[in-house]
Design a protein that fits this description.
The strands form 2 sheets. The protein has a 12-stranded antiparallel β-sheet with strand order 1-2-4-5-6-3-11-14-13-12-8-7. The chain has a two-stranded antiparallel sheet with strand order 9-10. It is α+β, with helices and mostly antiparallel strands. Helix 3 runs antiparallel to helix 5. It contains 5 helices and 14 strands. The chain is 19% helix and 31% strand. The chain has a single domain, classed as Acyl-CoA thioesterase, double hotdog domain (Porin, Beta Barrel), CATH 2.40.160.
Length: 310
């Protein structure tokens, strides 16, 4: 969710009569899921980038969070399958919201790191579903963390397309009350494919620019960029760099991505810079840094990407 350990998801929730719905839970929000109500109250509105991708938060028995997302042209990786960036964003979101939901939306969280293992990218046309659950909870607000496990899959597929493990810092936040109401989602953002949706732009020396737009915001109260969008940007840079370096050779696929979120992702353009670690025939490893305002020595996030044949 957040793009750095400082990106505190503002969980400003007052839960009075009903610990799950709050004292106004039976009013205009009653048609929304408990998870969606919690997110809206915590964020004082909706999450812009989640709406762009058409995500819908669900209550899933036995899990902390569930999300469905359409798999149309806007998440096309260019080959008729869902882009890894869209999967990363889905897994980042379901993990962060799962951490909040596990604590009944009474604490904030900040993402420390996220690891994603990719198995088989789903074909377009079948909606995606992701679920998450907290597997370890330590310490207390302000001095603890949560470990979250998540997986994403096509709704017609028995096996996961990708799995993630995320570590989140627990943060106490003061309670406040917001007016209950109906918070409709923004329209699904349409594009010919995922690269066009994100408006990635090539720059010098293998760098890729992610131009800022309001739809990339993950936390409007700060505001800060969506951690999933930053992760997708790092992957895009690594994928393009490797493709250019291995042109004519058998293609390698992204199999594991490990992201460290270091600072705020602010409301300006982001530049991703690739650094090769190992380029081989059967495997490759590429490190990618994301920075803003030309501050290459102060990255906001770092990704270590592993590629393999097959």
């Amino acid at each position: 969710m957040g793009a750095s350990p400082i990106v505190f998801l503002q969980l400003l929730v007052r839960l009075d009569a009903d610990p799950r719905l709050g004292k106004q839970g039976g009013c205009a929000m009653q048609h929304m899921s408990w998870t969606e109500i919690g997110v809206v109250r915590a964020m004082h509105g909706r999450i812009a980038h989640d709406d762009e991708l058409g995500m819908r938060y669900e209550d899933v028995p036995g899990r902390d969070c569930g999300i469905t997302m359409p798999a149309g042209a806007s998440v096309d990786g260019g080959d008729g399958c869902v882009a890894e960036g869209a999967l990363a964003t889905l897994l980042d979101t379901v993990s962060g919201i799962g951490a909040m939901a596990h604590m009944d939306f009474k604490e904030s969280v900040a993402t420390l790191d996220l690891r994603i293992d990719y198995f088989a990218r789903p074909p377009l046309g079948v909606p995606l579903r992701a679920v998450s659950g907290v597997t370890h909870k330590a310490g207390a607000p302000g001095a603890g963390s949560l470990l979250v496990a998540a997986e994403a899959y096509g709704t017609d597929a028995p096996l996961a397309a990708a799995r993630a493990t995320g570590r989140f810092i627990r943060r106490p936040m003061p309670e406040t009350e917001i007016e209950a109401g109906n918070y409709p989602s923004a329209p699904l953002r349409q594009a010919r494919d995922y690269a066009a949706l994100m408006a990635f732009r090539e720059s010098v020396a293998g760098r890729i620019v992610l131009p800022f737009r309001p739809g990339l915001v993950g936390n409007s109260s700060l505001p800060s960029l969506h951690g999933g969008a930053v992760a997708a940007h790092l992957q895009e840079c690594g994928n393009r760099y490797l493709a250019a370096q291995t042109e004519g050779a058998a293609p390698l696929k992204l199999v594991t991505a490990h992201f460290s979120f270091l600072r705020f992702g602010r409301s300006v353009d982001v530049v991703a810079r690739p650094v090769p670690v190992r380029l081989g025939r059967g495997t490759a490893t590429v490190e990618v840094d994301a920075f803003q305002d030309g501050s290459e020595d102060r990255p906001i996030a770092r990704g270590l990407l592993t590629f393999a044949a097959g």
